[in-house]
Amino acid sequence: xxxxxxxxxxxxxxxxxxxxxxxxxxxxxxxxxxxxxxxxxxxxxxxxxxxxxxxxxxxxxxxxxxxxxxxxxxxxxxxxxxxxxxxxxxxxxxxxxxxxxxxxxxxxxxxxxxxxxxxxxxxxxxxxxxxxxxxxxxxxxxxxxxxxxxxxxxxxxxxxxxxxxxxxxxxxxxxxxxxxxxxxxxxxxxxxxxxxxxxxxxxxxxxxxxxxxxxxxxxxxxxxxxxxxxxxxxxxxxxxxxxxxxxxxxxxxxxxxxxxxxxxxxxxxxxxxxxxxxxxxxxxxxxxxxxxxxxxxxxxxxxxxxxxxxxxxxxxxxxxxxxxxxxxxxxxxxxxxxxxxxxxxxxxxxxxxxxxxxxxxxxxxxxxxxxxxxxxxxxxxxxxxxxxxxxxxxxxxxxx
Length: 400
Description:
The protein is of the alpha/beta class. It has three domains: 2-170, P-loop containing nucleotide triphosphate hydrolases (Rossmann fold), CATH 3.40.50.300; 186-268, Rossmann fold (3-Layer(aba) Sandwich), CATH 3.40.50; 281-384, Rossmann fold, CATH 3.40.50. 34% of the residues lie in helices and 18% in strands. It is globular.
């Protein structure tokens, strides 16, 4: 069980942020919760300068990512930038802990953060820290803790678990295939092993898809494009679905009869991450972009780019070949996603397998608020190959 939890993808873990003023004891509390020296602790104010993340298992919560952040009252020369980095973490935090110094009480900084969390609908617990010292009276809902002695830490974990369970009641856990699969259904996954495939392993969307197919007691067949025709001939009955890497869409489409549903990993993940509807509407905006429009191509991970990289090489080439227009392309990766998108005429995002749903919906919402079309790799590639309608037909069977 422990080994299984430790292999949980980071994007599927509960992201918990620790916030508060400098020297309220955020880093010390992170260490107390983890039972490890996860964060650097010092009496010097502002020791934590950038968000520090730690993936681990905490019972009764399970797989989590703990995020230790800089103090929100940092008045140093770089304080404004540090606070901005702290606030950026709210885009992917699912639970928040406001660490308040119990010897001081709630400050204006603390109450301002509580209001922001409320507006962003991020569930929050108040950890009333330093209970080993003379205390101000805590709010009724606060959990009294001492990062120094460990007092109250078990109760803090229990309250976090309860808070998360309440959140799940309102937001059912998403799935890649929804309710489309039944026991013994056959799903073919087309996974090219080209120069972009990581040596010795498979990319995360493929692994997660295999696991969910097996969890549904369905049958998973994984092939390369060159093997697909032979496998289809060998099957006594047609498969329930064929899922392909987007880059092989055209080749796979030529081999799969129209009667067999066909889609891509990226399209399934657009639905899984909660951005499909917006991405579907935005993909056709490509046709109306004037020459020299600025297009942002963004990836959620920071991998080593190959000479024929999908994001920086192939997509720009395909887009300009399709439209016959020159565009200006900007590229971001990892956590580097602009707050201000107003200078772009379109955003094209990867499937987001390394980002949680909260982060993906936050990015798409940011684009929508600034009236910038936002789509993803798979939908755009399907559209460029004239396969958009076909690749979306299967989605009607997946509604939860």
